[in-house]
Design goal:
about 130 residues; binds zinc ion; three-stranded mixed β-sheet; alpha+beta; single chain; 2 domains
């Protein structure tokens, strides 16, 4: 997690919401296997989201909640997602259409993945 920047960018890509608006906030959502961790990188009293951002934020939280709940269970495979698909290519379907016991993490969270095919491909891709 630490190689990514979290915090205030000092930019206002969507304008200033009000006088208190301190600008864009780069945040990170991850999990340690037990808790979902939202990293702000700076003290934050509030943040504003557009409807699309709010939905994305909510789905990421739900995604990680599901991961934490399911990750320890036997028979659950965690793939690495690359351009919207599993690296191992076990299916051409998008994650929303995967079976319940097939989960995904981003390449950033590759250490959480337990799919041998995905892990092998990820390592040989040299990242
Ligand atoms: Zn896989």
């Amino acid at each position: 997690m630490s190689e990514h920047f979290f915090g205030a960018t000092g930019k206002f890509p969507e304008g200033k919401l009000n006088a208190d608006d301190e600008g864009e906030l780069q945040l990170g959502i991850a999990n340690d296997g037990q808790k979902i961790i939202v990293q702000f990188g700076t003290p934050v009293s509030w943040f504003g989201l557009g409807p699309v951002q709010a939905r994305d934020f909510a789905s990421l939280l739900i995604h990680h909640a599901h991961l934490v709940e399911q990750a320890g269970k036997s028979g659950v495979t965690i793939h690495i997602l690359h351009e919207g698909r599993a690296l191992c290519g076990f299916t051409n379907k998008l994650p929303g259409d995967w079976p319940q016991d097939q989960l995904w993490v981003s390449s950033r969270e590759n250490n959480v993945a337990n799919c041998a095919g995905c892990t092998e491909r990820f390592k040989s891709s040299g990242e």
